[in-house]
Design brief:
One of its GO terms (molecular function) is zinc ion binding. By secondary structure, this protein is α/β, with parallel strands linked by helices. It contains 5 helices and 9 strands, in the order ααβββαββββαββα. β1 and β2 form a beta hairpin.
C-alpha cells in the first residue's frame, strides 16, 4: 500500500466513525448538522411550550388508566401474536404530507428490522396509536387501550430521534435518567433546576431489564433539560462529565436490546 492510499483509507475510516451514515433499517440517511448542537430534549421541550396538555417529564401524558408512571405488566404492553410478532396498529392524520409520513415510516422501519415489533395500518382494531399533529411532541406510557394519541407536531417533532423517542414511550419505556439507579451514573444539579420542575428528575421504580445505564439512549435527557439559566447543566454524567447525553441520531444498541427483552423477541 502506498503512503497516499494509506492516508486516504485512514481518512475514510475516520469519517465513517465520526458520522453515522444510516440508521439501520430506516432507509434514511441521518445527516447531522455540525452547527446544530441542539439535543433531543431541548427540541421536545421547546415544541411542548405550546401545548395545554398535562405532561410529566416533559412529554409523557398523565396516565388516566393507572395510578403510577410505570409499565411493567402485560396490560400496558402490546400483544404478541402466535407468529411471534408484536403487531401495533396505527393511523396517521391527513394533515401530514406524504414526505412527512415517509419520515415516520423511516423511523418505524428501524423497529421492524431490529425487533419483533411491526407497525401496521389500523383496520378495525380497538387498541391503536393515532399519530396526530397536535401542539408538541408527546405520548402516553405503554398501551393505554383504545385510541392512543401520539403527537408529532409538524413544526418541531419530525426528526428521526424524536419520532423513535415518542414511539418508545408508547411501547412502555421511560426516560433513562429516571432509572431507579440513576444516582450511580448522573448527578442532578438541583440548584440549576426550577423547583417546580424538580419532579421531572425524581427516580422512578423502573424495570431496568438487567441492562446497563445507557448515556447514548434515545430516551436520555440532554444536559440542560429544565435548567433555569442558559449554560447551566441540570444533569451531569459521572464520573466523566464530558459524556454526551441527549443524542438525536436514533436508537442505541441498548434501546433496541431492551425492546427485544421486554417483548421477548
Amino acid at each position: 500500500m502506498t503512503p497516499s492510499s494509506g492516508l486516504l483509507l485512514l481518512l475514510l475510516l475516520g469519517l465513517s466513525q465520526a458520522h453515522p451514515l444510516m440508521e439501520e433499517g430506516s432507509g434514511e440517511e441521518v445527516r447531522v448538522d455540525e452547527h446544530d448542537t441542539t439535543d433531543i430534549t431541548t427540541r421536545i421541550l421547546t415544541s411542548n411550550n405550546a401545548t395545554d396538555e398535562i405532561l410529566l417529564e416533559g412529554d409523557l401524558l398523565v396516565p388516566k388508566t393507572r395510578n403510577a408512571m410505570t409499565c411493567w405488566s402485560q396490560n400496558c404492553l402490546w400483544k404478541k401474536g402466535s407468529n411471534g410478532l408484536v403487531m401495533i396498529p396505527f393511523t396517521v392524520s391527513s394533515q401530514f404530507t406524504s414526505w412527512e409520513r415517509q419520515k415516520m415510516d423511516n423511523a418505524m422501519n428501524a423497529f421492524h428490522s431490529r425487533t419483533c415489533l411491526r407497525f401496521v395500518p389500523r383496520q378495525n382494531q380497538y387498541d391503536y396509536i393515532s399519530i396526530e399533529n397536535k401542539a408538541g411532541c408527546f405520548s402516553a406510557l405503554g398501551k393505554t387501550g383504545g385510541r392512543q394519541v401520539l403527537s408529532l407536531n409538524k413544526q418541531g417533532c419530525l426528526h428521526l430521534g424524536i419520532i423513535q423517542h415518542e414511539i418508545s414511550h408508547a411501547l412502555g419505556f421511560q426516560h433513562e435518567q429516571t432509572r431507579s439507579d440513576h444516582d450511580r451514573y448522573v448527578r442532578i444539579n438541583w440548584e440549576n433546576i426550577n423547583p417546580q420542575m424538580a419532579y421531572n428528575f425524581y427516580k422512578q421504580a423502573t424495570n431496568n431489564l438487567n441492562s446497563p445505564y445507557d448515556y447514548s439512549s434515545i430516551m436520555h435527557y440532554g444536559k440542560t433539560a429544565f435548567s433555569i439559566q442558559y449554560g447551566r447543566d441540570a444533569i451531569t454524567p459521572i464520573p466523566n462529565s464530558n459524556v454526551q447525553i441527549g443524542q438525536r441520531q436514533g436508537m442505541s444498541y441498548w434501546d433496541v436490546a431492551r425492546i427485544n427483552l421486554l417483548y421477548g423477541c
